[in-house]
Predict the 3D structure of the following.
Amino acid sequence: MITIRGVHKDFSIDGAKVTALSPTDLDVNRGEFVSIIGPSGCGKSTLLRILAGLETASGGSIEVDDEGRARQRVGFVFQEPVLLPWLSALENVRFPLDTAGVVRAEADSRAKDLLKLAGLTGFEAALPRALSGGMRQRVSIARALSYDPSLLLMDEPFGALDLITRDRLNDELLSIWAQTKKTVLFVTHSVEEAAYLSDRVVVMSPRPGRIKTVYNVNLPRPRGEGTKLDPSFHQLMADLRRDLR
Ligand SMILES: Nc1ncnc2c1ncn2[C@@H]1O[C@H](COP(=O)(O)OP(=O)(O)OP(=O)(O)O)[C@@H](O)[C@H]1O
């Protein structure tokens, strides 16, 4: 469970205060898949970066119930895969474990399992440049899961991919999510992606960035081709589009 209360962020640009995120409250349940959608500049990335500890909030509080662990563990997937080009797929996934001092045999075995989960068995030795964009992003997802975070933050992870690859990765992400039971916060610009993947969709609006509406997605799981034919899926997309206008 993540409890966000009054989290806000102001930046100073040339001495002028810019509110990237006005005080925001949100609860995310353990194992829930929540998407955040909104026009450019509404504070989606800022909220995610604050949750990841990459940015400091100007105020408010965040509590992450991290299954009794002393340190909060968060995995982050960016729009660009940001892999180390001189390391193989396996070494990239293993990298956070190596830096955390996990013994080699255990790190290797975990990285192999994660590459399998991401559908990359057989590509362990491949360098990033030998992989397609979709495969590189799957390596990034495997790497984000390597230190077993309770919370997976994804900032437009499939935004740079073609639509066919994106559809495939959406299904693969749902399969990974079903198997790992992670809590996922997923930023996207696509209403279809948000409706297809999520338990709830958070719509944000800009100037200043704030949560406008939260939608419950009552489509049955597992999702698949049938979901895309469901009239309530189309109704939800229409509602989201109207809200975003
Ligand atoms: N480091 C920074 N310094 C100054 N202003 C910033 C900084 N980071 C973000 N902002 C401002 O905060 C606001 C929210 O930015 P943010 O990147 O969170 O939006 P976003 O919804 O993720 O946008 P996009 O969809 O384009 O990625 C914007 O007005 C942006 O210009």
Summary: The first helix runs from residue 44 to 52. Residues 11, 13, 18, 20, 38, 40-46, 209 surround adenosine-5'-triphosphate (CB under 6 Å). The two ends are 31 Å apart (CA to CA). The chain has two domains: 1-72+158-244, 82-149.
